[in-house]
Amino acid sequence: MDLQAAKSGANGARIDPLDTPAAVAPIIATPTPTASATLAAPTPPAPPAASTGPGTPPAAAPVAAGGPFTPPRTRPRPGAPAKAPPRALTIREWPESERPREKLLERGAQALSDAELLALLLGSGIKGRSAVDVARSLIADFGSLRELLSADRPRWEAQLGIGPARYATLMASIELARRHFREPLRSSSALSAPDFTRRFLLAQLRDRPYEVFCCLFLDNRHRLIAFEELFRGTIDGASVHPREVVRQALLHNAASVIIAHNHPSGVADPSQADEGVTRRIRQALALVDVRLLDHLIVGDGRCYSFSEHGLL
Predict the structure, then answer these.
(1) Which residues pair with 295 in a beta bridge?
(2) What is the rounded distance in angstroms from the CA atom of residue 298 to the CA atom of residue 204?
(3) Sheet strands (E) in 181-255
(4) Pair 218, 293: CB distance under 8 Å
(5) CATH 3.40.140.10: does it fit domain 178-305?
(6) Could you give the CA distance from residue 256 to residue 293 in angstroms, rounded to a whole number?
(7) Average model confidence (pLDDT) for the chain?
């Protein structure tokens, strides 16, 4: 068969090689990459232009990757506890010769300071402060030992480390001191030992912030039967009723009486009102055969005696 016959169909038609399926199939072009699909390499920055002009500072030296080297700083680790201050010594850790109790037993109470005596009454300190430290702070806050011992309860309990128990202990010690001054008056004559009477009245009345009128009821030997506060007033006066003085004198079966009151101002000189009430009380007591021995006015550290100044 010749080439022409091989290229002829069954019906004898001539088939062109271009009419074959392979020849008529579309040509698929190889896709070219798009601009979005290609990644361009980063362009390194251009080095700074070197300046050769006069007066221009030289270019900075290149910095190594990661920045300039910085020496590490010594810092405490996060969350590490701060260094605690040195712990204060407790009184038990003091030298034995410096402890208030041992010092008192060895050298006597007069060898102790005001703060050390007060510390013994307090008994103990508070956290971080010894009893002596607390006592020093109390004296400094009140201004003086006298102000401290005459302060009222609310002012006391407002201080750090002072509660009802310690306040009660301090008040009990003060009352014991007052009663100590009263004991000699029970065993000896108030007239033969006038200093005892004055010291007792100073301890009782000197630091009162208001006027208080009191009576010392005595037996026929001028020994103390009872001491009573009969009237209480304000900072500059108190109402006194002679009949109440007479009633209490009869109640105690007293043979004589000494009356006394304080001046919160500290000035012990008598006023005209003081002289007038003294005369009325003397006359009222005379009606029941009770003698008025003296009228004492308590000031700041001294007493004024009506008897010594010839006013009775």
Answers:
(1) 259
(2) 9
(3) 212-218, 224-232
(4) yes
(5) yes
(6) 7
(7) 78
Which has the closest alpha carbon to 257: 230, 224, 218, 296?
218
Whole-model pTM: value is: 0.59
pLDDT in tens, 6-59: 444 444 445 444 444 444 444 444 445 444 444 444 555 555 554 455 555 555
Residues 48, 37: Cα–Cα separation, whole Å: 33
In what order do the strands lie in the sheet containing 224-232? 224-232, 212-218, 256-262, 291-298, 303-305
DSSP state of 27: P
Q: Beta partners for 126?
A: 129
Angle at 264 between CA 263 and CA 268, to 5 degrees: 35
Strands 291-298 and 256-262: parallel
Cα-based angle 42, 48, 51 (whole degrees, multiple of 5): 165
Supply 27's token pair: 């040509």
pLDDT confidence of residue 2: 45
What is the rounded average pLDDT of the residues 107-119?
A: 91
Side chain identity at residue 173, one-letter code: S
| Residues contacting residue 4 through CB under 8 Å, at least 6 positions apart | 14
Closest CA to 215 of 244, 238, 174: 244
CATH 3.40.140.10 domain locations along the chain: 178-305
Q: Taking a C-beta distance cutoff of 8 angstroms, is the pair 103, 112 a contact?
A: yes
User: How far from chain centre, in Å, is Cα 297?
Assistant: 38
Instruction: Provide the strand spans (E) within the chain.
Output: 212-218, 224-232, 256-262, 291-298, 303-305
Q: How far apart are CA 94 and CA 97, in angstroms?
A: 8
> Which pairing describes strands 303-305 and 291-298: parallel, antiparallel, or unpaired?
antiparallel
Return d(Cα 274, Cα 258) in angstroms, integer: 14
